[in-house]
């Protein structure tokens, strides 16, 4: 049981952690910290948090579990703000979509990653944001990846695992570099492609009015292009190495497909599209497990 | 009112035309033609069609409206089979996803496109196929593009428009070349990207087990990669010029995005992602109209 939980950044992700732990009866009180006064007020008014702070150090003091749920780009400044009140008896974690850069930020701020800081990433979210979108069952059945380092205290890892398990999530461990490689493939690259395609076609739409003839397939394919631009700018910068490597690979792959189409290589196209369909079925089979 | 409707290819698209016209009370009897005996039997048993033929010429004889609802790659051979029984008093149309190649096929078969042939394309469909997936309201509120030529008989165009309107569809006219350009952008390019990405990541999954960490965004983005490989091979070959041109444009566009990420151009990334999100909102606003 968590006595006093501090959630820094009370948006969809942080707000859902607050709601969920309370619904599970696993928390005494919840402290919310947010730079957005209106969002903080909404979190307090709706009972998602018990008390509200706009100051990180004041909010986190005397808490036994501190969750940094800000956008990736803000984590380093949050760690700096936490440093003066960092408590050896508390446990700290984050929910950033990239992990290598969070660990690098912790090293810059503390000299070495503190043994009671457990980097983590819940694979959940939506295009919606803000505490109004928070819900207690956001993490039910979802995956959470923790990327503890060799020097991370096992008791700290246990505390963070317990938090996620009480929210119904399935917890895995991974090396930080592997996390960033996997997520670049399954999340970051698809987002960049969706943003790039939608921007390109948006310009064509202005000229040729093409969107009125787009249908359900286009709606689903471009859904992630409605995601928060600031959040995705930060993720692209935080995991640039992996994303650039995959973009290069994908452009080369696309050039081959283009060549098949240009040279009317029917068998190669059929084989590639069949391979893709089978791969997606493998993904769907795992998603339902 | 159609006296005798012939649907050649009683799958999702053709079967839904048969169900929908019957439900609207706009058809006397429906003749179904299909090369797949099991599918044809299912269409007959479920009452989607009134009589069944495996031979195009026999099925289409004495019908006043003939809809070619086969895959794009089969349309030329269907036109060849229809030629000996082609009736000047009947109206013919198709539902192919590409139009330039259908018109070229008609020119090859007949010397010139017959004035009672109206090329068309309903923008509806799904990953599912076969008559079992057919439903009477598949076209309700959907767009249908007709691409009549200057020599197409106005009465023939009217008959095909009436068919689609009784199914609840919204009918537009377009030049065939413009149709193929628009659909390359909003449908063909997204499908090729989804197939290419899913195949590429499928190989990575076999090595690194990445799919188990993919979530809802990935599921939606790759949904169209579950589409029928043979159908999409045929579409890529039928509209290769437009698709290749857009693939080239997209690869160049992607190279710029890659360069922004590599050079940490935060403002450019934010502007591009914002442009994409705004463009998608324009698309959504139109979809709801």
TrEMBL record, chains A, B:
Belongs to the prephenate/arogenate dehydrogenase family. It catalyses: prephenate + NAD(+) = 3-(4-hydroxyphenyl)pyruvate + CO2 + NADH. Residues 3-289 form the Prephenate/arogenate dehydrogenase domain. One of its GO terms (molecular function) is NAD+ binding. GO terms for biological process: tyrosine biosynthetic process. Pathway: Amino-acid biosynthesis; L-tyrosine biosynthesis; (4-hydroxyphenyl)pyruvate from prephenate (NAD(+) route): step 1/1. InterPro entries: 6-PGluconate_DH-like_C_sf, NAD(P)-bd_dom_sf, PDH_C, PDH_N, Preph/Arog_dehydrog, Prephen_DH. It comes from the Bacteria. Pfam families: PDH_C (PF20463), PDH_N (PF02153). Signal peptide: none annotated. It comes from Methylomagnum ishizawai. It is an enzyme of class 1 (oxidoreductase). Keywords: Amino-acid biosynthesis, Aromatic amino acid biosynthesis, NAD, Oxidoreductase, Tyrosine biosynthesis. This is prephenate dehydrogenase. Its EC number is 1.3.1.12.
């Amino acid at each position: 049981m968590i006595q006093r939980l501090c959630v820094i950044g009370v948006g969809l992700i942080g707000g859902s952690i607050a709601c969920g732990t309370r619904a599970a009866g696993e928390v005494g009180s919840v402290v919310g910290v947010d730079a957005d006064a209106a969002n903080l007020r909404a979190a307090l008014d709706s009972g998602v948090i018990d008390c509200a702070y706009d100051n990180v150090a004041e909010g986190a003091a005397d808490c036994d579990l501190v969750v940094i749920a800000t956008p990736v780009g803000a984590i380093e400044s949050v760690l700096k703000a936490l440093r003066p009140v960092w408590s050896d008896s508390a446990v700290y974690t984050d929910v950033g979509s990239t992990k290598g850069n969070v660990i690098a930020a912790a090293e810059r701020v503390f000299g070495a990653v503190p043994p009671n800081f457990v980097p983590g990433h819940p694979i959940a979210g939506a295009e919606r944001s803000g505490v109004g979108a928070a819900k207690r069952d956001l993490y039910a059945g979802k995956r959470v990846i923790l990327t503890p380092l060799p020097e991370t205290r096992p008791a700290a890892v246990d505390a963070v695992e317990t938090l996620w398990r009480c929210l119904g999530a399935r917890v895995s461990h991974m090396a930080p570099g592997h996390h960033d490689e996997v997520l670049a493939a399954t999340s970051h690259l698809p987002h960049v492609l969706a943003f790039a395609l939608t921007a390109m076609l948006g310009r064509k739409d202005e000229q040729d009015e093409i969107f009125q003839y787009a249908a359900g397939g286009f709606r689903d394919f471009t859904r992630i292009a409605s995601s928060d631009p600031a959040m995705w700018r930060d993720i692209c910068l935080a995991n640039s190495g992996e994303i650039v490597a995959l973009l290069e690979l994908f452009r080369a792959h696309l050039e081959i497909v283009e060549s098949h189409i240009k040279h009317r290589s029917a068998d190669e196209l059929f084989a590639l599209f069949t391979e893709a369909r089978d791969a997606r079925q493998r993904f769907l089979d795992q998603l339902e497990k």
